[in-house]
Amino acid sequence: MNKKELDFLVFCIEGVASALNISGDSVYSYLTSKSKILDEYILPHYDALHTQGKDYIVEDIIEQMKSEGLPI
To answer: What is the pTM of this model?
Structure first.
């Protein structure tokens, strides 16, 4: 993971945490240890995702979390 991807990941985590009113640590756990969203969705689709607006990105990740059956 390069610096741009890392910065984007932090942006995503904080955006989702704010939208769901939960901690960034919880979101990180949901994206890594409780699912493979980080490795199988966010990073592989970085090129497309980072060109979108914050609202779209946050909603897209939340939808991925819901589709994984995460309790959000």
So the answer is: 0.92
Q: Does any domain span residue 72?
A: no
8 domain-assigned: yes
Phi, psi dihedral angles at 41 (to 5 degrees): -130, -60
In eight-state DSSP terms, residue 44 is: T
Which long-range contacts link 54-57 to residues 24+ away (Cβ below 8 Å)? 54/11, 54/15, 57/11, 57/12, 57/15
36: which DSSP letter? S
**For residue 51, is it within any domain?**
yes
Residue-wise pLDDT for 21-69, tens only, equals 999 999 999 999 999 999 999 999 999 999 999 999 999 999 999 999 9
Tell me if 61 is assigned to some domain. Answer: yes
